[in-house]
User: Fold this.
Amino acid sequence: MDDCLFCKIVRGEIPAKKIYEDEHTFAFEDIQPKAPTHVLVIPKKHIRGLKEAEADDAEMIGRLNLVAARIGRERGIEDGYRTVLNVGPKSGQSVFHIHLHLLGGRDLSWPPG
Ligand code: 5GP
Ligand code: ZN
Assistant:
């Protein structure tokens, strides 16, 4: 997608603090962190969001979670972190390239707002 913000980050056209990359997945620091660890994990393939994902995307959705778990381990925040997919504008989704938020490094209240 030519004008997608996160596709541009994957292509290196917009700078980001990269945390992790593999063939399918890219992870980087959120520009406005809401916790000491706030990392966005995205597929390199452009998909608008969870509700646009299809059966073929099941593996990718699993991969996003496993990359988040790996980063949680590396950051030493396994006593409590959260992975979040905002889905649709009413949830606060503002970037329409699916992204898993990894939030941790502080107490997290429940339920989220
Ligand atoms: P959403 O609200 O769509 O679930 O999450 C989008 C996230 O992307 C937000 O937490 C926002 O801070 C982050 N974000 C928006 N623009 C940029 C950017 O240019 N660079 C980075 N690293 N994060 C961004
Ligand atoms: Zn995209």
